[in-house]
Design brief:
Layout: E1 5-9, H1 19-25, E2 32-36, H2 48-70, E3 93-95, H3 106-121, E4 131-135, E5 151-156, H4 168-181, E6 184-187, H5 190-196, E7 203-206, H6 213-217, E8 234-238, H7 247-256, E9 261-265, H8 270-273, E10 281-285, H9 289-296, E11 301-304, H10 310-313, H11 318-325, E12 330-332, E13 346-347, H12 351-361, H13 366-377, H14 381-396
Helix pairs in contact: 7-12, 11-13
Length: about 400
């Protein structure tokens, strides 16, 4: 594919390894990537947390307004960062947007378009190259005409309308705009493809998540000191602890079998913190992304602990192929349609079933574990990026 410029409105680059970051990272070699950090997913509420965030944002924004509007030739201080650099060490140009978070107001939208447009004007975007706009945060739909583009892509990685505390009417309005106007709509799960695809006016594709196979599949590292004293099998989880993780079910499962040691990795919420009282549960807290695999490779079984609701039914789990890359069998509270290897998941929807599936997974043969590794090797981010490149080439006819 000939050189292009990718302008991305997504999450915060480097904050956590999102699917958008994995996919776009593949275009860093040979293309220019301008990544605009998150403009948020919701309007502020009357809470102390939100008040502090708004004050921080306003202080940041107004500290740059004079520079943006009075000195158009001055760069708008893009910052650099990456969850994991690609093999060439390349990074995108990251723009920290100056905006006001009250997105439902038309006047605020106009200010944000002008403000962010001014910032982007200071970024060296080559006008002779095709400009591809990639939006993974539907709230950024009203920014789609900030610059002229040859291709608009909406990447739908979650059902954002089901996220808690979001302005659902505003999100639905903005997402409907993208489904109608985007040249390509990409859905990360079959549920998203089926539920939203009928509203797509142009091209739509199902592109499931991949895996950083090289990072997770290399040889088994030395045992971390925190885990050296563990006797018996290790069943683990790494990821976020949020409202859609079924810690109630997990707590009942953990109490059933003291012979199993459970290791949990991630920044604990209030509910997760209470699990420290269980003698066979080790809560390690948040670890750097590069360190996670060192601990996870000690797992005999990996868990996916989703509650059953509209939001989780639309999820394409990043951890599925990450577990498989390490040869770790999975016990999950649900199955995932349309994903290669989903049939290998041990599924249990009640505490008794989940515990029974763990016991079955602990007997997983070496041959089956190797099969899981092979499944992951066929579903890397490199494979997904090649599929994406073909889609873009077809749309641009280059």
């Amino acid at each position: 594919m000939k050189p292009c410029t990718f302008l991305v409105f997504g999450d915060d680059w480097g904050r956590h390894p999102s699917s958008s970051q994995h996919l776009i990272r593949g275009f860093l070699h040979g293309h220019k990537v301008v990544w605009v950090n998150s403009i948020g997913m919701r309007s502020p509420q009357l809470t102390q947390y939100d008040a502090d965030r708004v004050l921080q944002r306003l202080k940041h924004s107004f500290g740059h307004v004079r520079k943006i509007f009075r000195s158009p030739d001055t760069p708008s201080a893009p910052v650099q960062g990456s969850p994991r650099e690609n093999s060439s060490g390349l990074k995108p140009t990251v723009v920290d947007p100056v905006f006001l978070p009250f997105h439902k107001h038309k006047a605020i939208q106009a200010f944000n378009r002008l403000s962010i447009g001014k910032q982007l004007s200071s970024v060296n975007i080559k006008k002779r190259e095709p400009l591809i706009m990639w939006i993974s945060n539907p709230l950024a739909a009203y920014l789609r005409k900030t610059v002229a583009t040859q291709l608009l892509i909406y990447y739908c990685g979650d059902d954002f309308l089901e996220f808690p505390e979001t302005d659902k009417d505003l999100l639905r309005e903005q997402e409907d705009t993208l489904l109608k106007e985007a040249d390509i709509c990409i859905f990360s799960s079959l549920q998203l493809y089926n539920s939203k695809g009928s509203r797509v006016s142009k091209k739509k594709f199902f592109l499931p998540h991949g895996v950083d196979f090289e990072a997770f599949s290399n040889r088994r590292p030395s045992i971390p000191p925190e885990l050296t004293s563990i006797k018996g099998p290790v069943v683990g989880y790494f990821g976020i602890f949020s409202d859609w993780i079924d810690l109630g079910l997990f707590k009942r499962v953990a109490k059933m079998d003291q012979a199993i040691q459970y290791v949990l990795i991630g920044e604990p919420n209030e509910e997760a913190s209470k699990l420290r009282s269980l003698p066979n549960v080790m809560l390690l807290g948040k670890l750097p992304y590069e360190e996670i695999k060192r601990y996870a490779k000690q797992f005999d079984v990996g868990m996916l602990l989703y509650k059953k609701n509209n939001m989780t039914m639309a999820i394409s789990p990043l951890k599925m192929y990450e577990y498989y890359s390490m040869g770790i069998p999975i016990v999950s509270t649900r199955t995932f349609k349309g994903l290669d290897g989903a049939e290998e998941i041990y599924c249990g929807t009640t505490p008794d079933e989940f515990h029974a599936r763990i016991r079955e997974a602990l007997k997983c043969s070496s041959r089956k574990k190797q099969h899981l590794v092979e499944i992951a090797a066929n579903n890397t981010w490199e494979v997904r990026q090649k599929e994406l490149t073909r889609l873009i080439q077809g749309a641009l006819q280059i």
